[in-house]
TrEMBL record:
<protein>
    <recommendedName>
        <fullName>Flagellar P-ring protein</fullName>
    </recommendedName>
</protein>
<keyword id="KW-0966">Cell projection</keyword>
<keyword id="KW-0975">Bacterial flagellum</keyword>
<dbReference type="GO" id="GO:0005198">
    <property type="term" value="F:structural molecule activity"/>
</dbReference>
<keyword id="KW-0732">Signal</keyword>
<dbReference type="GO" id="GO:0071973">
    <property type="term" value="P:bacterial-type flagellum-dependent cell motility"/>
</dbReference>
<comment type="function">
    <text>Assembles around the rod to form the L-ring and probably protects the motor/basal body from shearing forces during rotation.</text>
</comment>
<keyword id="KW-0282">Flagellum</keyword>
<feature type="signal peptide">
    <location>
        <begin position="1"/>
        <end position="23"/>
    </location>
</feature>
<keyword id="KW-0969">Cilium</keyword>
<comment type="subunit">
    <text>The basal body constitutes a major portion of the flagellar organelle and consists of four rings (L,P,S, and M) mounted on a central rod.</text>
</comment>
<dbReference type="InterPro" id="IPR001782">
    <property type="entry name" value="Flag_FlgI"/>
</dbReference>
<keyword id="KW-0574">Periplasm</keyword>
<dbReference type="GO" id="GO:0030288">
    <property type="term" value="C:outer membrane-bounded periplasmic space"/>
</dbReference>
<dbReference type="Pfam" id="PF02119">
    <property type="entry name" value="FlgI"/>
</dbReference>
<dbReference type="GO" id="GO:0009428">
    <property type="term" value="C:bacterial-type flagellum basal body, distal rod, P ring"/>
</dbReference>
<comment type="similarity">
    <text>Belongs to the FlgI family.</text>
</comment>
């Protein structure tokens, strides 16, 4: 029994497990798009009504005033002679944006996002009036209308206020109706281009090999982003369905991305650092004030005074020493080596930038 257990343990540690072998294998549909099949951005200008006194001030937002007057005139209400009396704050001018997905047909519904353009403070509870949505060519492709939904709120009192998220932005689920579709006919094409979302020559080559092994010699690499499919007599829809479900192992370049605003560091698996010696230290000066009151003795003619008490503490990190960061064979070893230096994300950003300047960081450094 002991021998059997040892054999099972040996096999468990040496045999490749199925999920480990396919840990980095993904479908082609998850890393590539069909060139020419894309969404289109739409934009429109409209009015939101029904706000609880949180809309635009008509005296400050002249475009809101003129839009309201024009809308009422189209509805048969003429208030040009009385426009000076318009003082409502229940209406707001907004910009409406949406994306028209590929293969959207007449009558399909899309989501829209509504954002205030004037000095409105809260769009919650408002209703967007009929708003045409235009594309870059100036044509109307959808019309939006409906009740606004927002997860934000704002409240204030005499001395304090609280705001969660952005109350001047809201959305309408299925609030737009497609009026004009963008025709895309894949069935008439004899050649299709698959566009990689992350251009890489190795990944593109692996995609072409996987497609050719499954469907015959129909794919070739045009550039690091594009794999060309020559369909010939193949059925386009059936071929694309088979291609999308093929698995490939994408290759990623060694990259370190740094966001200095938030102190975020993201490293790729192929990042390597040559052996370097690192010493890191900061000069910290802390000044604290603790004033004390000095009172005169009983029955004396003195007065109470406040005496300052200042304490200054200087930390030069003298206890930190020079450390050696050896060349790491893996991302785990690299992270462990950096963590062993005992520095935070902000200091680690400076260290990585300095290592790159020294030529020891074998990766592309991207600073945002």
């Amino acid at each position: 029994m002991r021998t059997l257990c040892l054999m099972i343990l040996l096999l468990a540690t040496t045999m490749p497990w199925p999920w480990a072998a396919h840990a980095e294998v993904v479908r082609i549909k998850d890393i590539a798009d069909i060139e020419g099949v894309r969404s289109n951005q739409l934009i429109g200008y409209g009015l939101v009504v029904g706000l609880n006194g949180t809309g635009d001030r008509l005296n400050n937002s002249l475009f809101t005033r003129e839009s309201l007057i024009s809308m009422l005139e189209r509805l048969g209400v003429n208030i040009r002679d009385q426009e000076a009396k318009l003082q409502t704050r229940d209406i707001a001018a907004v910009m409406v944006t949406a994306e028209l997905p590929a293969f959207s047909h007449d009558g399909s519904r899309i989501d829209v996002v509504v954002s205030a353009t004037g000095d409105a403070t809260d769009l919650s509870g408002g209703t967007l009036l009929v708003t045409p949505l235009l594309a870059a060519d100036g044509d109307v492709y959808a019309v939006a209308q409906g009740q606004l939904v927002s997860s934000a709120f704002a409240a204030k009192g005499a001395a304090s206020s609280i705001t969660r998220n952005i109350p001047t932005s809201a959305h309408i689920a299925n609030g737009g109706i497609v009026e004009k579709e963008v025709a895309v006919d894949l069935r008439t094409r004899n050649e299709l281009h698959l566009s990689l979302r992350n251009p890489d020559l190795t990944t593109a080559r692996r995609m072409a090999l996987a497609i050719n092994a499954s469907l015959g010699e129909i794919a070739h690499v045009s550039d690091p982003r594009t794999v060309v499919l020559t369909l010939g007599g193949h059925n386009v829809i059936e071929t694309l369905e088979q291609v999308e479900d093929l698995f490939v192992q994408p290759d990623t370049p060694a990259t370190v991305v740094i966001d200095e605003a938030s102190g975020t560091i993201v490293m790729g698996d192929n990042v390597r650092i040559s052996t370097v010696a690192i010493a890191q230290g900061n000069l910290t000066i802390q000044v604290s004030e603790a004033p004390v009151a000095s009172q005169p003795g009983p029955l004396s003619n003195g007065s109470t005074v406040v005496l300052p008490r200042t304490t200054i503490k200087v930390d030069t990190d003298a206890g930190k020493r020079l450390g050696i960061l050896t060349e790491g064979p893996s991302l785990r070893d690299l992270v462990s080596g950096l963590n062993s230096l005992g520095v935070g994300p902000r200091d680690m950003i400076s260290i990585l930038q300095t290592i790159k300047a020294a030529g020891a960081l074998q990766a592309n450094l991207v600073v945002r």
